[in-house]
Structures are given as structure tokens and as C-alpha cells.
Amino acid sequence: MMRVLGIDLAAQPKTTGLVLLSRKTKAADNQGWVAELPPSPATDELLIDLGSQVDVIGVDAPLGWPEPFVQAVMAHQSFNPWPGTENRRPLTHRLTDDRVRDQGWGQPMSASADRLGSVAMRCALLQREWANRWGAAAERDGSGRLLEVYPAAALRVWGISQPGYKGGTKDAADPARKARNKIFTALRTATEPWLDLVSVRESCVDSDHTLDALISAVIALLAQWSATSRPESDEDLRLAKVEGWIHVPIGPLELIRPPEA
Hints:
Layout: E1 3-8, E2 17-23, E3 33-36, H1 44-51, E4 56-59, H2 67-77, H3 89-92, H4 95-102, H5 116-134, E5 146-149, H6 151-158, H7 175-191, E6 195-196, H8 201-206, H9 208-223, H10 234-243, E7 246-247
Helix pairs in contact: 1-5
InterPro entries: DUF429
């Protein structure tokens, strides 16, 4: 039975979203997948345990830092000249961040010079602990058990992006909640033939963290049959293995299907 974990990683457990996709049958038509909510809060201990129990993880968090940033910090630490220039973007954004931006899929936050830095540190700790459980570190390019994802980019590719779906309240009239409901409804309609989302509906509409975790899990599932963007050149692949690589769906929402298993 294949299991996929989607994580909307935050610096704190209470704002970290989790969704687990499991295949309950091996029917020829791919039906039998179900989405579930793991226990909460999403502590490091829980994430480490869950990571050792699933086949693949899709995490909305940077798996690494920009290579020039790491080199610059090492140079500064050794009292060598700072290698950066007035253009700080190579220090703040990775190759994969620029690829996502250039495609018009959104602008990922900086892993080195923004609030995302704390999330990147937590993700690095989780990678270390998962490596201990798995026996080896996962490739940061997403070719193994761990993939970096960016739900906002997926929503744009699928044509169901809703501005303002983050935050808000659980009030039925809240604009953010209405936006999440529209996104969830579109996902449910597209995946209904093979994925049961009943048990996660309320949480996805109530919380953008859970909704992003669901999207993260779906992207990780799509990646299993090469339906996500990949590094194109040898240099892209080299950097992806160091900095991480954001997997973005390459097909429309209507073509979402699970991999053969």
C-alpha cells in the first residue's frame, strides 16, 4: 500500500499542516485512494515518525539554501573577502526559485533572507532525522523519497488560484474561507474518481495549512509518474541536488491521475 505525506511546514507545530494519502486497493482503475489527517500538533517527533512510515513526502519548504549564499557565509566566517556584489539576488534566491518566477508561477520566498529562514532550518533538521531513519539522505532534487513543492505555483498551473485564501477565520462568510472552499471544490471535482477527500474537507476549508498540505501531497503523488517539472540541464541538476528543486505540476487539473501501482 503506497502512502504519501504532504507537509505545509512552518516554524512552529501549530501552524504546520499535514495530510496523508493512502492507497487502500490495487484496482486497475486506480480507485481506492483516501486522504486522512494525521495526529496533531505536527511536532518534529511526529514528522520524523511519519516520514519513516511513508513512501514519499511532499514538503512546502526549501530543502537547501542558495549555493552562493553558503559560499559567501563560509568566506566571511574565514575572514576572506565577501564574494557578493550589489546584486544580492544570487544570495537570496536559488536557481529553482528563479525558474518558478520566470515561468510566471509565483515568487518563492527567500530561504536565506526572509521569514522562511526558520522554516528552512527546521526542514534541514527533519532531513537529518529522516536520513537516519532511511539509512541515507534523500536527494534534494526530488528523485527519491523527498520532494520540495510550492502549492501556490500548482494552483496557478491548474488555473484555480484564489487570491486571499490564506488566513481568515472559520466563519462561513469569511472571504479567505470562501476562497479555500473554491480551491478545495475544484480539487475534489478533479480527483473524485480516484481520491476520497471526505475526511479532510472541513479542515482544508478551515485552514490554509491543511489545504496546502493536501496540495503538497497531490504534487508528490504526481511526481511519481514524472508529471512535475524537472531540472533540464546538467548544471540545473547539480544545483538542484545542492539547493533543492521545486516540483510543479506540468499538466492541467483535469488530467490529475495517480501513478500506476
